[in-house]
Design goal:
The complex is a heterodimer.
Chain A (H helix, E strand, L loop, with lengths): L8 H11 L11 H11 L6 H11 L3 H10 L11 E5 L3 H5 L2 H12 L12 E4 L14 E3 L2 E3 L4 H13 L1
Parallel strand pairs in A: 1-2
Antiparallel strand pairs in A: 1-3, 3-4
Helix pairs in contact in A: 1-2, 2-3
Chain B lengths: L17 H6 L4 H9 L3 H11 L11 H6 L9 E6 L9 H7 L1 H15 L3 E6 L7 H14 L15 E6 L9 H8 L23 E5 H12 L4 H5 L7 E8 L5 E6 L4 H7 L9 E5 L8 E2 H4 L6 H6 L8 E6 L4 H15 L5 H18 L5 H14 L7 H26 L6
Parallel strand pairs in B: 1-2, 1-4, 2-3, 5-9
Antiparallel strand pairs in B: 5-6, 7-8, 7-9
């Protein structure tokens, strides 16, 4: 279970670039971006061992990192599917039919929002925030890339292309 | 010729590139300041006189904010707030990808004026794929041209700018929550005073401005005094980007003079879908009170006019709803958002937003009572004004205004257990 996580040279380089943006004694400021870097490296989620490793690396307590990891919605502390789908369904997108898009994806992938597909290909994030693309609604992000002015046909095409990867 | 401050590069070839920006008088204001070593007070005065108001939502006078920074030496910071997440708002994301150098130049001028040697631009995490890359590329270009960094353009001025990325939290758009987040903590707002201008990032004097505000600064500096002021109306000087979304034919960002009639703005956005009637408008992001459509059609888009009809200009996120809209469902969606995004620090907000959402969920599921409607009002009143930051107010204002303007529609839903419009 508890396999040590090693921050290798490449990851250390990326984290050092973040640390450099802040005053020398303010390494804690690098926690959020470092977590995103480590999450990306670890197929989309953060483990206790990763938190331990980052804690040692930045000299920030584990609990301080853990509370950040659980506060921000883009950081996952449990395993999720490889491709993260986030369908905006805040007001502006809702008015343009985002609920229909979301339930279409749920049916197509046979999962509910907040779940991953059994083959681990997709994770349908419970996106509650507005994704700031109201002029392109309905829209979704897949791995943070925007897909706007969605129709059901477009959704089919987009998901198929991701399947081909 | 139509005047544009933040959006003038949007339709050009390679809009985000340094070359495009330079070809359009980019960095001219900054180069002048560096060459002439313009006194800081002169810059702050010019921004003050221009009437520029913060474009993130609160509408505070930018020059006045800058003037709060203490004059003594010591480390100071500038923060650009690109954590755009007020529902209905999508302007900063376009500025960041189509005009990133205007943000950088604005950040440089602001940093210089307040005496900050370091500036941070905090982008929301969801901007990771496009805006984050474009903005970082623009920063590198500006560094290579010696417009940023040590001894800028061979002067003795040193200003470093960095881009930071968030990880998903609406509350970080609140300026003191953003400072907490930059310090690597949960985004929980701080009690004010002390205000950030006195005690901000790492307890040092800090000014936080919105992306659109800072992107407006270079052109104001470049033009004659009085120019920006002449573009708008009294107390709503200059320009504003309005993000038009919802039931309209041509959603988009429109940068127009403040004081423009809403009906003209609606025309720019192609009017309502399928010639339907307008029912309601949320004029400044989902936090501000909703206004009936027929009232909105007579309002001008400036701070005072929108306040007169009981709402706020806010972030400029204009959400338009036609007659087919179920107001109960819209309020339910808005309440879910504030419930989810409350940071949990203050009891009235943490508990109250949950109750608002639960009661509205009950109503939507056909289990609501008349008493629930009064309960919603009571809870909203108890949240408003009782929390550290404005998120509580932002959750309460929609509830009170939706009930006030569309009471009969809520009553109908409770009685008939279905929507009046569906």
């Amino acid at each position: 279970m508890s396999q040590e996580f090693i921050i290798n040279e490449e990851l250390a380089g990326l984290i050092n670039d973040v640390v450099k943006k802040f005053p020398l004694d303010k390494k804690r400021s690098a926690v959020i971006e470092s977590l995103l870097i480590l999450q990306h490296h670890n197929r989309g989620f953060i483990t206790k061992n990763i938190i331990k490793a980052l804690s040692d690396y930045l000299s920030v307590s584990e609990i301080d990192i853990y509370e950040v990891a659980t506060f921000y919605t883009m950081i996952n502390t449990v395993p999720v599917g490889k491709n993260v789908i986030a369908v905006c369904n805040n007001v502006s997108c809702m008015l343009r039919g985002s609920d229909q898009i979301l339930s279409y994806i749920e049916n197509k992938l046979k999962i509910k929002v907040g779940e991953s597909t059994s083959d681990n290909k997709f994770y349908l994030k419970d996106e509650i925030e507005c994704l700031a693309a109201c002029n392109g609604g309905p829209m979704m992000q897949i791995n943070h890339k925007n897909y706007e002015n969605l129709t059901l046909e477009k959704v089919d095409q987009i998901l198929e292309n991701i399947n081909d990867d | 010729m139509t005047i544009k401050l933040c959006t003038d590069t949007f339709d050009l070839k390679d809009p985000g590139s340094l070359k495009t920006y330079l070809d359009n008088n980019g960095y001219l204001a900054w180069k002048n300041i560096v060459k002439e070593q313009t006194p800081k007070s002169k810059i702050i005065e010019k921004i003050k006189d221009s009437g520029l108001r913060g474009k993130g939502g609160a509408g505070f006078l930018t020059g006045l904010k800058w003037s709060f920074i203490p004059l003594m030496d010591g480390q100071k910071y500038l923060v650009c707030n690109s954590d755009e997440s007020e529902p209905g708002t999508c302007k900063d994301r376009d500025i960041l990808r189509y005009n990133p150098h205007a943000v950088i130049e604005g950040m440089l001028i602001a940093s210089y004026a307040i005496g900050a040697s370091v500036g941070y631009n905090y982008l929301r995490g969801e901007f990771m794929d496009e805006q984050w890359k474009v903005f970082n590329d623009a920063l590198s270009e500006a560094y290579e041209e010696k417009l940023i960094g040590e001894n800028i353009l061979s002067s003795n001025i040193t200003i470093d700018l960095h881009a930071l990325i968030g990880a998903g939290a609406y509350i970080v758009g609140e300026e003191t929550a953003m400072l907490e987040s930059i310090e690597g903590k949960r985004g929980m707002p701080r009690i004010k005073p002390p205000f950030p201008a006195i005690k901000g990032l790492y307890d040092k004097p800090t000014i936080i401005n919105n992306t659109e505000t800072l992107a407006s600064v270079p052109k104001i500096m470049l033009n004659e005094p009085g120019w920006y002021k002449s573009l708008g109306v009294d107390d709503s000087e200059g320009m504003k980007i309005f993000c038009m979304s919802g039931h309209i034919n041509n959603p988009g960002n429109f940068e127009i003079a403040l004081g423009t009639p809403f009906s003209d703005l609606l025309d720019l956005a192609g009017g309502i879908f399928n010639q339907k009637n307008i029912k309601a408008v949320i004029p400044g992001g989902s936090s501000v009170p909703v206004v009936k459509g027929e009232v909105m059609m007579k309002v001008n888009m400036d701070y005072d006019s929108i306040t007169e009809v009981g709402s706020m200009l806010g972030s400029g996120g204009v959400i338009v709803m036609d007659e087919s809209t179920c107001m109960v469902s819209v309020l339910h969606r808005i309440s879910r958002f504030y419930y989810s995004e409350s940071c949990g620090q203050c009891t009235p907000c943490r508990e109250g937003t949950g109750w608002l959402y639960k009661i509205l969920t009950n109503i939507i599921s056909g289990n609501g009572t008349q008493n629930d409607l009064h309960q919603l009002e009571r809870i909203a009143t108890q949240i408003e004004g009782h929390c550290i930051c404005a998120l509580g107010d932002a959750a309460a204002m929609p509830v009170r205004s939706f009930l006030k303007n569309f009471w009969s529609e809520f009553e109908y839903y409770v009685d008939k257990k279905e929507s009046m419009v569906s």
